Amino acid sequence: xxxxxxxxxxxxxxxxxxxxxxxxxxxxxxxxxxxxxxxxxxxxxxxxxxxxxxxxxxxxxxxxxxxxxxxxxxxxxxxxxxxxxxxxxxxxxxxxxxxxxxxxxxxxxxxxxxxxxxxxxxxxxxxxxxxxxxxxxxxxxxxxxxxxxxxxxxxxxxxxxxxxxxxxxxxxxxxxxxxxxxxxxxxxxxxxxxxxxxxxxxxxxxxxxxxxxxxxxxxxxxxxxxxxxxxxxxxxxxxxxxxxxxxxxxxxxxxxxxxxxxxxxxxxxxx
Length: 271
Known about the structure:
- The chain has helices at 3-23, 29-34, 39-53, 57-70, 77-94, 112-118, 123-129, 251-260; strands at 101-105, 142-146, 150-155, 160-165, 168-174, 177-178, 186-195, 199-201, 204-206, 218-222, 228-230, 241-243, 247-248, 266-270.
- The protein folds into three domains: 3-94, no CATH class; 101-146, Membrane-bound Lytic Murein Transglycosylase D, Chain A; 150-270, L,D-transpeptidase catalytic domain-like (Beta Barrel).
- It is built from eight helices and 14 strands.
- 36% of the residues lie in helices and 24% in strands.
- By secondary structure, the protein is an alpha+beta fold.
- It has an eight-stranded mixed sheet, with helices on both faces.
């Protein structure tokens, strides 16, 4: 079996585990007993925590993945999943040592916008990777740039959105999707992105600051007009099929996603 096939298999398993965590009901005492972490899982978890403390993040990440793959019923699997996701985000936002990170020396004519397009990333992520307060960069300045290949997978039946880098799961978010099967299925691309979007509601212009603006703090529009991923003014509805067809996220989470995925990111939606 080649590495790509293995990566796909691991990614699918991690998504299944994450969905189970997000959707699970309370365990009975018997289930808790059966699902108790084995000594091996506990040992692996201790290793991962120790590696993380030693700033060996890539090694820690591999062990977290191993626990999720081999011990899906461990009683600390929810903690492992959360810590694995936090570690993934930390590695991306810090642009630490990784095959996905390139060091770019600023040349004449470079701008953050041009560099984001060149490396298929976002201005927000470049700024965060390099602790830049503004958009100004200097000739000869060396910038660390994450150049992964993000894609998004939405499962309507589970109301979850999975962010992937190629075939590897980065993070799983709980979302809301369309009422009455209103969210379209298929493959789409993000073609526009807006901060504090205006909502055009049947001819009525609803400004960003309005408490009636259902789009929340971010908008990522698909190549299917009228549909996209956005924030919310009703966070209590997350996890339900209640929207007019869009994918709805908590504002703090849609802001995180927005900072990572560039225009032309592929979005796959399934029933």
